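User: Can you recover a sequence for this backbone? Please restate the input before giving your answer.

Assistant: Of course. Working from this structure:
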């Protein structure tokens, strides 16, 4: 329930993000999102009921949804378009470390300092984040190549003479394909984060933290290869290769019965995630005009979070009915569906004039 409420709140905030962008601009809206997250985290010290805790999850999720979409948007504004894959890969290293090592750090804090220390660490991290966000410059020469300006102030969308669709302010239709792929990835990724610790305990492996460490290292290292490859060849080889790595990781988890197998699965899964996430983000940014990047990023992250939320729930049902091994196999099947959808899209686009931009190769 807690994860579901958090996800719903994050999705809702991103659906409203175009309104906030027109009113505040990227930088101010980002500050608002981080501040809301900080309020939600700090409020845990005053919680005395389940209803109050649920309200905090709504508040925290709302701020999280805004911040995650806008950080990507601001970063994309300052990365030269010719190096966007490489740049997004470096930026996404932060996500890799937080998603992979965050659970390990959280469990350690909970064990040694209980919930007071856990939430205290969260407050400190968000406070530092808020200060660093305040230091983001409003303009920059680096952005001229791709956007002419960082455009952190409120901007109005360019007029095309056509009346925009009613839903154009909350969903960017040009990024529905990469967002759908993100949905599949989120479905499997949510299951991995939620159940790999319980799975390892069931088969007698207590040092699960090493799995997350291996995943984080693989995610970081692969980006030194996948980012430049994206810029040279386009998203095709990166996205297909990453999916194959993730499928191998899921199959290895299905057969895992030892620490060595678990670590090997972590290497393949981490490499797949590490190549896939920034490639999808860079592809999303490449598909839209600069003034639509905020809505495009929000659309992508909403699909990703919905996948993580539903994946955690539905794969949990699978675990209760069939066990962890079958759950990991089902996660691998989701990557097969990902490949089917992507390859069908590429085949349709292959005769177009923007083959590389829309998901192909040079």
């Amino acid at each position: 329930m807690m994860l579901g409420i958090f996800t719903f709140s994050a999705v809702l905030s991103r659906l409203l993000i175009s309104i906030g962008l027109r009113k505040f601009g990227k930088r101010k809206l980002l500050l608002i999102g981080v501040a809301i997250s900080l309020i939600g985290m700090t409020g845990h010290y005053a919680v005395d009921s389940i209803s109050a805790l649920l309200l905090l999850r709504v508040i925290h999720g709302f701020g999280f949804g805004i911040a995650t979409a806008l950080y990507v948007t601001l970063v994309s504004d300052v990365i030269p378009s010719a190096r966007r894959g490489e740049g997004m890969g470096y930026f996404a290293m932060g996500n890799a470390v937080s998603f992979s090592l965050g659970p390990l750090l959280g469990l350690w804090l909970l064990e040694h300092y209980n919930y007071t220390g856990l939430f205290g660490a969260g407050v400190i991290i968000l406070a530092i984040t808020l200060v660093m966000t305040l230091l983001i410059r409003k303009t920059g020469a680096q952005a001229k190549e791709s956007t002419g300006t960082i455009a952190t102030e409120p901007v109005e969308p360019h007029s095309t003479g056509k009346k925009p669709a009613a839903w154009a302010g909350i969903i960017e239709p040009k990024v529905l394909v990469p967002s759908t792929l993100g949905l599949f990835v989120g479905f499997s990724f949510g299951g991995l984060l939620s159940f790999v610790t319980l799975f390892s305990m069931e088969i007698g492996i207590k040092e699960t933290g090493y799995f997350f460490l291996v995943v984080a290292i693989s995610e970081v290292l692969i980006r030194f290869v996948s980012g430049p490859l994206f810029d040279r060849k386009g998203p095709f080889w990166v996205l297909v290769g990453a999916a194959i790595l993730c499928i191998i990781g899921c199959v290895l988890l299905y057969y895992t019965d030892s620490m060595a197998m678990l670590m090997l699965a972590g290497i393949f899964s981490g490499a797949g995630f590490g190549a896939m996430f920034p490639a999808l983000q860079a592809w999303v940014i490449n598909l839209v005009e600069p003034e639509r990047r905020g809505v495009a990023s929000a659309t992508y992250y909403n699909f990703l979070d919905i996948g993580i939320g539903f994946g955690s729930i539905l794969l949990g049902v699978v675990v209760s009915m069939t066990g962890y091994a079958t759950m990991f196999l089902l996660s691998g099947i989701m990557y097969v569906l990902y490949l089917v959808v992507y390859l069908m899209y590429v085949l349709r686009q292959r005769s177009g004039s923007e083959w590389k931009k829309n998901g192909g190769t040079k």
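That completes the design. Residues 84-134 form the longest helix (51 residues).
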